[in-house]
Every structure is written in C-alpha cells, then in structure tokens.
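Reminder to self: tokens first, then the designed residues, so the page reads top to bottom the way the pipeline ran.
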C-alpha cells in the first residue's frame, strides 16, 4: 500500500492533471482534497483534450475510483457539466466511479457574484481571482454559515440557510456594490434539484479511504493550484482561499499523517502565473513571447494569458520544504527548445544582502534583484524522447542542475502535453 500526493510547486498550472492521469495507472483511489473549479487540469489522451475543474484527473481510467473530498468547494452546475461532457466520450460516471463527501461546501450563485464585484472594486489592488466564487464560499465555511453537499438533500435546512445567508449577501450586493440581489426561493428550488442529482454519490470518504488503506490499496491525492497560492504560505494576499499544501490532504479528506508515503512536487521547466501578485522571474521580452506561444500559456479555466518567466529555485526549495517533497516532476521541458540561453534564478539580492530562501514578506519579494545562472539551450525536438539518455546534452545538464540545486531526485520528465510524451524514471508507488 502507498499513498502519493501530487502538488504544484509554483503558482499553478504546472501540469498536475497530466501527471495525475499517468500515476493513476498504479492507483486504486484518486482524490481531490481542496480548491474548486478555479482549477483547470488538462489531459491529452489519444489526441483528445479534456479539462477537469472538479473531477479528479484519474477519471478517464474506468476501473479506478475517484473521490471529491470535504476540503473542496463544489459548484454542482460545473460538476454536472463535467459529468455530461464525459458521458459523451463514453464515460458513465455512476456512484461506483465517483464519490462526493457530504461535508464538501457548495458554491452558491451569490458567492460567484460577490467574488466578481468585490475583486473588481479593488481596482489596481485586485487579486485577479477566477471569479468562480471560491473565496466567498470558503469564507462562509470558516464563518460557519456555509451550505454543504448534504444540506442540498434537506429542504427545510437549505431554505433556512439560504434565507439567512441572503439577508447579508443581498445587503452587500445591493448596498455596497449596487448590483442585483438574489431571491431565495428560486435558489433553493434549483439547488434541491442538485441534491437529488448527487444524493447517490454522497459517501463518507474518510471511512472509505481508511478502509482502503487497511486493505492495502494505493491512494493518489491530487492538489489544485500551487504551493505559492497557498492561503498561509503563498504570496498573500495574491493567493487562493485554501491550503494547497500536501499537509492539507489530511484535513481535506479525513486521514492521519502517518498514511502519506510520497509527495511529488511538479515544476514547470520555467514559471507561469495567472492573475495579480509578485513574480520575481517574470519576463517581458521575446523570451516571454516564446514561452507563452510555445507553451500555449493561456488559463485552462479563464482563458487569460499566463505571465511567463524563468525557473526560480527559491520557489522550488520553498515548495520542497513546505510540502516535504520526495520526488520532482519537471514538465514542459520541450517548451525551452529553441532558446539560445536558459536562465535559472538561484538567489535574490535585497538591500545589498543575498537571499537564498523565499522571503516571507511581499515587499522583499517585489523589490529584490534576481541573480541568475545561465545555461546553453538546445535546438533538437525532444517531444519524441522517452529515455533521459536520448535528450540533448544541454537538456540533461539543465535537469541535473535542477536536481542539484533543489537536492531532490527527478522522478518524471514531461516533454509534451500527450500522455505518452513522458520520460518515466521512478515509480512513487513502488
Ligand atoms: P494543471 O492545472 O497543473 O493541471 O496544468 P494546466 O492543465 O492548467 O496547464 C498545463 C498545460 O500544459 C496544459 O495545456 C497541458 O496540456 C500542457 N502540458 C502538460 N505537460 C506538458 C509538456 O510537457 N509539454 C507541453 N508542451 N505541454 C504540456
Ligand atoms: P490549477 O489547479 C493558476 C489564481 C487566480 C488568482 C488567485 C485567486 O489549474 O493549477 P481564486 O479564484 O482561487 O480566488 O483566485 O489564484 N488561481 C490559479 N492560478 N492555476 C490554478 O489552478 C488557479 N486557481 C486559482 O488566477 O490569481
Ligand atoms: Mg490549471
């Protein structure tokens, strides 16, 4: 039995979907533990593109069980869309294949409305959220007024909760943001239909996973967002509203710490970020155009162009420590092909002092000068490479340098978006 956690080391979109799909081969259960449909996880399988926002990225493997943990915020409309889209590709998602925690919180239409108007009202200080209602939904959870999946099956409780919540939300929407309020009745009626739709999928996932552990099954946990979007350890306030770190698997599904065996940290071979916030190695030159074009760096959820820059060792070292990463996956190495010189940020310089760990203060991150090491690039197409030894020597040197600087072994290298465009080195479940 093994439990493997897959985490993004940067600011999201590292390629978690592709990697989870590959590791699902060896897993019995694939579970999301935090976030919501702010995530966009892309898989390219047999030339067909799938983007999952809520469904775990193991869902294409018909014999595996996928779970949505209590730590998520679930938009039932989006979940229905994903299930219906998959049905068209021959995937019948019965309760045998998909389970949902009764304690996962529900994103309501007023959460989305507040998310959008409130971020907009921040002007040049806006976070650039995905507008999916993630923050407002987690706020209600912490405030203890949130609506959970199980509440959608109880008409009286749902009515009471929606009416109570809307008194406050409508005051905010109308009084502060001068926008349309919500009438509770149609909201309740609509969400009761989602309760009916999902009642068969509701399951105590803590119990299920702990039974699975006792039976010696392999568990895979899929992180969403990335380490530096973590509410506590990210570049606050330019973060998401959940803990994205490996440690949150435990609370996000209901499992004890002794059950985690291996943590995979995924790093893009360069860095991207969507939305606002500091990005020390961001580029604004022809290299950023190269990375954005060749890497197709547009958000999987919102379609916004992703900001692009060099790999930053400080973020990766930070991610290794914060998550207890035991193996690295490097993705999108092929995107660097054709660059004459490749740079890695190895330290920051602030007020004359050298910094080699990610600063905890936004001001220091923003005002630091970046110190780079330079490496010669390569021109050969590497998308067909399946063995490390067949990579151009400069690509291998680049990977060796990353391993050395982070002091962590690389377990997989991705050289293209397709499932097969992968160099597998070690199996974390072994
Ligand atoms: P996630 O949110 O971490 O799952 O990542 P996204 O799916 O949002 O973004 C990663 C993008 O890069 C997707 O379009 C993937 O299909 C693509 N991708 C993943 N790995 C590779 C790779 O090795 N090379 C290239 N060129 N694209 C990749
Ligand atoms: P995956 O799982 C990249 C970013 C948003 C914004 C900030 C807060 O695909 O890697 P939110 O809507 O969560 O309140 O937005 O976080 N963000 C992501 N960026 N990938 C993601 O998910 C993200 N999820 C949220 O752009 O800056
Ligand atoms: Mg994504």
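Designed residues (430 positions):
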């Amino acid at each position: 039995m093994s439990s493997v956690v897959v985490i993004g080391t940067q600011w999201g979109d590292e390629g978690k979907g592709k990697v989870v799909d590959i590791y699902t081969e060896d897993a019995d259960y694939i579970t999301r533990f935090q976030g919501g449909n702010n995530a966009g996880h892309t898989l390219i399988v047999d030339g067909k593109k799938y983007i999952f926002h809520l469904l775990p990225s193991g869902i294409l493997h018909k014999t595996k069980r996928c779970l949505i943990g209590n730590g998520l915020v679930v938009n039932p409309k989006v979940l229905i869309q994903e299930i219906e889209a998959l049905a068209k590709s021959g995937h019948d998602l019965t309760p045998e294949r998909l389970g949902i925690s009764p304690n996962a919180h529900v994103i309501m239409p007023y959460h989305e409305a507040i998310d959008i108007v409130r971020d907009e009202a921040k002007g040049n200080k806006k976070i650039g959220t995905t507008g999916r209602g993630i923050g407002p939904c987690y706020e209600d959870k912490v405030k203890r007024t949130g609506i959970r999946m199980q509440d959608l099956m109880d008409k009286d409780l749902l009515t009471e909760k929606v009416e109570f919540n809307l008194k406050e939300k409508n005051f905010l929407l109308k009084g502060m943001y001068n926008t349309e309020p919500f009438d509770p009745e149609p909201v309740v009626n609509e969400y009761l239909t989602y309760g009916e739709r999902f009642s068969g999928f509701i399951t105590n996932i803590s119990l299920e996973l702990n039974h699975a552990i006792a039976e010696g099954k392999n568990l895979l946990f899929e992180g969403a967002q990335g380490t530096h979007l973590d509410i506590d350890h990210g570049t606050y306030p330019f973060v998401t509203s959940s803990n994205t770190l490996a440690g949150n698997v435990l609370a996000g599904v209901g499992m004890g710490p002794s059950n985690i065996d291996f943590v995979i940290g995924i790093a893009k071979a360069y860095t991207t970020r969507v939305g606002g916030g500091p990005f020390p190695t961001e580029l604004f030159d022809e290299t950023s155009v190269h990375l954005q074009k060749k890497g197709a760096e547009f958000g999987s959820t919102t379609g916004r162009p992703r900001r692009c820059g060099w790999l930053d060792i400080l973020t990766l070292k930070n991610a290794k420590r914060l998550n207890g990463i035991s193996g690295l996956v490097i993705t999108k190495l092929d995107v660097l092909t054709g660059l004459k010189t490749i740079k890695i940020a190895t330290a920051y310089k602030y007020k004359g002092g050298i910094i080699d760990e990610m600063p905890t203060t936004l001001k220091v991150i923003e005002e630091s000068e970046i110190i780079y090491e330079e490496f010669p690039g390569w021109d050969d197409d590497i998308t067909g490479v399946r063995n490390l030894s067949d990579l151009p020597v400069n690509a291998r040197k680049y990977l060796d340098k990353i391993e050395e600087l982070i002091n962590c072994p690389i377990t997989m290298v991705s050289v293209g978006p397709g499932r097969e465009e992968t160099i597998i080195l070690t199996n974390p479940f072994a």
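DSSP finds twelve helices and 19 strands in the chain.
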